[in-house]
């Protein structure tokens, strides 16, 4: 396995990328979420790329404009269509044997791929898609009920309550939300659903059970969707060793079946 660092053009700027080379004709394009660099949280994307390339699959990672080592102005995930298109073109140039490309995105990178109806990819693996209109959105009622139930099973939480270390106002507001109706899907969630509906290729949706972003997404979608796979004991970035292995296995399955 060989790892190369390179740059490619996007609207007159130079974007930084890393290619983990492989001989297979199906490759993985990793789209980073938020302001995360191509290495990923806790260098998770770099480790993931190395593992998949060791199995023979080329993996391309990049920093979009204004992020990490790339030039330009950061336009956010809603303005990332040109960046992703340029990265896909560069991937095909650098790995000319490719006949199919799968994209993987976590958080708002998954949202971007959905909004762009797959962005020209042959298949998608979407993790914990971001549907929040802002960071203040509460988890869905079901997730809050589970959280409160877990807390009430612990003696320490009862001690905090009787000793006045719990804000009764916040507790009351949380309970009201926990036992209230499910939230209406955000306008962003509706846009994403419409965009994904136009995509004709295979889709896998991965949800981390301990992630608020995933919980909010699941509350707004059809929970019986056969494309959804869940890992209950994972946080947002799949940072836990067992969660990283699960994520790597899911991506390897997608690459082999493409």
Q: Would you write up a description of this structure?
A:
- With 258 residues, the protein is an alpha/beta fold.
- The chain folds into two domains: 208 residues, Alpha/Beta hydrolase fold, catalytic domain (Rossmann fold, 3-Layer(aba) Sandwich); 38 residues, no CATH class.
- Helix content is 39%, strand content 19%.
- The chain is built from nine helices and eight strands.
- Strands 1-2-4-3-5-6-7-8 form an eight-stranded mixed β-sheet, with helices on both faces.
- Strand 7, helix 8 and strand 8 form a beta-alpha-beta unit.
- Helix 1 crosses helix 9, helix 3 packs across helix 7 and helix 4 crosses helix 6.
Summarize the helices and strands and which ones pair or pack.
Layout: E1 3-10, E2 13-20, E3 26-31, H1 44-54, E4 59-62, H2 81-94, E5 100-106, H3 108-115, E6 123-127, H4 141-152, H5 155-162, H6 168-178, H7 187-197, E7 203-208, H8 212-219, E8 228-231, H9 241-257
Parallel strand pairs: 3-4, 3-5, 5-6, 6-7, 7-8
Antiparallel strand pairs: 1-2, 2-4
Helix pairs in contact: 1-9, 3-7, 4-6
